[in-house]
Amino acid sequence: MIDRTANLLGVVGLAVADRIGDTARDVLRRGGETPAALVVIGYGSGPSNDQLRGILRLSHPGTVRLVDRLVADGLVERRKGRDKRAIALYLSERGMALREELLKGRLAAIRPLLTPLTGVEQETLAALLHKMLSSMETTATERRTLCRLCDDRICTNCPIPADARAEI
User: Which domains does the chain have, with CATH numbers?
Assistant: First the structure.
């Protein structure tokens, strides 16, 4: 039974990922880690390129190219970091607007998968997902990576708090 459940969960996971990816391409006209970069930078803690690289699991050159594109597109601004050697990344007004559209589109893309469930079933599923996530042994960076597309305003009782975003 556990293999069947694992298989079904894998399919649901791919359906969710595909819907999120499609939404991101519709909103941003870009795929890859661009949407996650906008969400992470949009938390407003001014991550450096290296911190962003760790969360997105990109190479250093890949992160530099991604940030260069975001800056060229007018979505991200480079500012002085806390450390004089580092540059802090922040979203521009346009970047914030696209981030907001992306987060709303992400939820709109996932919501139809939940509509066949009753309210009680949705609550049960939420409790089970919370239990599964909270049982995962993760580091702060792994939690930030898992939550890289989350709207942290919605998840008020996060099972894997990435509250250390302020430390990014």
Answer: 2-111+119-167 (1.10.10.10)
